[in-house]
Amino acid sequence: MKQHIYSVLLFSIATGFAGCKGKETAATGSGESDGDDIALNGAGATFPYPLYSKWMSEYNKLHPTVKINYQSIGSGGGIRQISAGTVDFGASDVPMKESEAAKASGKLQHIPTTIGAVAVAYNVPGVSTPVKLTPAVLADVFLGKIDKWNDERLTAINPNAALPDKQIAVVFRSDGSGTTGVFTDYLAKVSPSWKSEVGVGKSVKWPAGLGAKGNEGVTGQIKMTPGSIGYVELAYAMQSKLPTAALQNKAGEFVEPSLEAVTRAAAGVNLNEHLYASITNSGGKGAYPIAAYTYILVYQDMKDPRKAAALAKFLWWAVTDGQAFTKPLHYAPLPAHSADKVKIEIRSLKAEGKLLISGA
User: Fold this and answer.
1) Do 261 and 230 contact (CB within 8 A), yes or no?
2) What is the pLDDT at residue 21?
3) Is 85 left (phi over 0), alpha (psi -120 to 50) or beta?
4) Which residues, given as ranges, of the chain have pLDDT below 70?
5) Which residue in 10, 16, 211, 331 could disulfide with 174, CB within 3.0 to 4.6 Å?
6) Cα torsion at 243, 244, 248, 251 (round to 10°)?
7) pLDDT tens track for 275-298
8) Could you give the domains of the chain?
9) C-alpha distances out from residue 278 to 181, 182, 204, 263, Å
10) Is-contact 247 133, C-beta < 8 A?
11) Residue 356: CA atoms inside 13 Å, Cβ hemisphere, count?
């Protein structure tokens, strides 16, 4: 599989804070007043890449002097790079483990940016209705215990679908992936066999299938492999026009991935003190069961005041005005109860001990 790592993306973004909601301004002395370009480097999750790319482009139209380079390399790579200090911000779809955070040079903060769905996409020629999957059947497909599309357990829950006598080709992420972390978190909640035989993580030992790099790679592999099934962020499936399965949720409903269903998954689930929460297998009516927050990772107290001020202002824009771009790209905006907590955290970011954003 051809490696799908995006090359350097340079987008001009801002010194001022015009166009952002509220009256937050850069703290005195942390500024970009001289008009010189500021370069910010980030790396990490492929899950939110379509949205982050749009944000950078739109922010560029508003503010022309800060250049952002974001490499879509997977959550594992993003965590490693921000911990090593080789980037200004990282991105991950799963919270950092304590062992990972301990490798960083300072306290790293999770900034939730949006909510997305991990869709189960497939390529089964001749099947026009959405394939239905129960939690147990989905787990056994990825465990390799169900390996034919016309297996009686699949046909029993899909009586109106002409499932063929064809081998199932499982496609999974070969890189350290937050999308994998979310997917395996769900499977471990609903399948004792998955929990004991495979477990949860950004990288796991897959019992069956083909590996591909990034959400882009998995999408491409499914698209060109008849009989395949895999897991990708919803935006990738939609953009590639891949069909997605209706999954049985905790309430017993078969639910297709959608913005409304993802929003319902997050309803009533509060972010913890570290600003993260698991919303897989949510019990809400109409909730899609494999949904997740995704996070930008930044140091609580940064070293370079000019870079830090630019980054803090971009983050503020992303969680306020930038939320308007979530729905057209198949992401859900932050719920109000979460957005309020995120704004408080962004206001607390510092450089050399000084707050970066002031105002109310």
Assistant:
1) no
2) 41
3) left
4) 1-35, 359-360
5) 211
6) -110
7) 999 999 999 899 999 999 999 999
8) 11-115+294-358 (3.40.190.10), 117-291 (3.40.190.10)
9) 11, 8, 19, 13
10) yes
11) 33
